[in-house]
What does this fold into?
Amino acid sequence: MASAKSQKSMDTLYIIIPAYNEEENIRQVIEDWYPVIEKHHANQQSRLVIIDDGSKDNTYKIVKDCASSRPLLQAVTKKNSGHGPTILDGYHYALIHGADYIFQTDSDGQTLPGEFEEFWTQRNHYDLVIGNRKGRQDGSSRIFVTKTLKLVLRLCFGVTVQDANTPFRLMKAETLKKYIDLIPDGFNLPNVLIPVIYLKQNCSVKYIPITFRPRQGGTNSINLKKITKIGIHAVRDFRTINKTISASAPHNKK
It folds into this structure.
């Protein structure tokens, strides 16, 4: 029988990174994150999964080229559906393929792989370990959106989420599998709903401060106008979603 120490070292990790028109960044992002998946390869079962969201440039070609010499890198492409739905597709992909833990970050180079290890050491103690973007460097407008979102979530769901949409999060797959169906298919903000769901379900959530740099290259496909449009649409959905989440919460179960 395997010891507890050796069993922990075999935890399968899936790193999910959505990408859309990131040909300027994607090669460096792979070079940055591939050593992480190599370190936590779990007998070669872990994967770095880049999900191309129907890019119009060479993003997918670059990922495929990189995968030819990196056995733990999985290149996936799909019809364009947007950042949020692509993340959700990635989570389903990881669950189907047997991940024990799922980590998500973005393909714009704003996060640092060197900060992953602190999250990994906490994996057995929390259902969700999520980054709190302290001193973020991606512009005042986005900081304003994050603060507004925090208020909206408090008003709509009755929970306080420090930084709901951070693209730097580690999740226990078994917990995510229980609740992922509470997120509507095609919803634009699945990462926002996950901490909300977990808090209402009394799951364990920990925030760890992270560095959040400016975009390292290319153009952000999600501008302030698009963020505002997505946000207005999401708020309209929050009331309905809250009823579903609340109905499944522990205090409402008989």
In short: Strands lie at 13-19, 47-53, 73-78, 101-105, 128-133, 168-172, 205-210. Residues 1-7 have pLDDT under 50 and may be disordered.
